[in-house]
Design brief:
The chain is built from six helices and 15 strands. The strands form three sheets. Strands 7, 8, 9, 10, 11, 12, 13, 14 and 15 form a nine-stranded mixed beta sheet that branches. α1 (about 5-10) crosses α2 (about 20-25). A hairpin with a 2-residue loop joins β5 and β6. It has three domains: about 5-60, RNA-binding S4 domain (Structural Genomics Hypothetical 15.5 Kd Protein In mrcA-pckA Intergenic Region, Chain A, Roll), CATH 3.10.290.10; about 65-125 and about 210-240, Alpha-Beta Plaits (2-Layer Sandwich); about 130-210, Alpha-Beta Plaits. The protein has helices at about 5-10, 20-25, 120-125, 145-150, 190-195, 230-240; strands at about 5, 30, 35, 45, 50-55, 55-60, 65-70, 100, 110-115, 135-140, 165-175, 175-185, 200-210, 215, 225. The chain is α+β, with helices and mostly antiparallel strands and about 240 residues long. It is about 20% helix and about 30% strand.
């Protein structure tokens, strides 16, 4: 498949905008098969020709995967007229093609995968696939294992009955309690509703794992890293139960 060179550059380099791509091309920084090309509209097939920027070869991938440490206050959406979205945190990304895999509430932080791979998104989100989503929740007041026990059997939230969840208490933080809760669905406000059902309230919520994916050490809130398909597959397999 052939692309305009400026568009292809934004596909290959996630942090470059279309304007910056044109400037780089016109500035002689881009080569195709070793030859400098200065026309942003030049068509090229990245599977047949080698494109380089500043002497570094760029690899074309049909599907791209970005692991974002979502901060609070940002919408899990592609576009919004009033609020910042998770796609706004990735410079140069195509808002028409990429999307978050599932949603985190605006006040929820943590792991969020952003991709243009619809098949993978279905695999991760389908309840039939039983992909684990683990959250750290800071709960109001004292929360005990006895209070959490019903969640391990599945609870009726009115519109659906949850699958059995797993939990562990992380410890107390002042007068409040931190817990890790793992579910395999991902319904609207599900974790908050489950905690409310046991008589507590979530003060802060962060997703720490999806399958075998975790937030890399040092990746601050609002930052992202790109994973290759091989890296993504390896991490997801690492999270499967033996």
């Amino acid at each position: 498949m052939k692309f305009r060179l400026d568009r292809l550059l934004t596909e290959l380099v996630s942090t470059i905008s279309r304007k910056q791509a044109k400037e780089a091309i016109r500035g002689g920084r881009v080569r195709i098969d070793g030859v400098v090309v200065t026309d942003p509209e030049r068509k090229t097939d990245p599977e047949e020709e080698t494109v380089s920027l500043d002497g570094k070869g760029l690899t074309y991938a049909k599907f791209r995967y970005y692991l974002l440490n979502k901060p609070a206050g940002v919408l899990s959406a592609t576009r919004d007229k009033k609020k910042e979205t998770v796609l706004d945190l990735i410079p140069g990304i195509d808002h028409e093609k990429f999307f978050p895999v599932g949603r985190l509430d605006i006040d929820t932080e943590g792991l969020l995968l952003i991709t243009n791979d619809g098949a993978l998104a279905h695999e991760l989100l389908s309840p039939k696939k039983h992909v684990e989503k683990e959250y750290f929740a800071l709960c109001k007041g004292v929360v005990t294992e006895e209070m959490l026990a019903p969640l391990a059997e599945g609870v009726d939230l009115g519109d659906f009955v949850t699958a059995p969840a797993t939990f562990r208490i992380a410890g107390s933080e002042g007068e409040n309690t931190g817990i890790f809760l793992t579910i395999t669905e991902g319904k609207f406000h599900q974790v908050k509703r489950m905690v409310a059902l046991i008589g507590s309230e979530i003060l802060a919520l962060r997703r720490v794992r999806m399958g075998g994916l975790t937030i890399p050490e040092g990746l601050a809130a609002g930052e992202f890293t790109e994973l290759s398909s091989e890296e993504l597959t390896a991490r997801l397999h690492a999270g499967k139960n033996e």
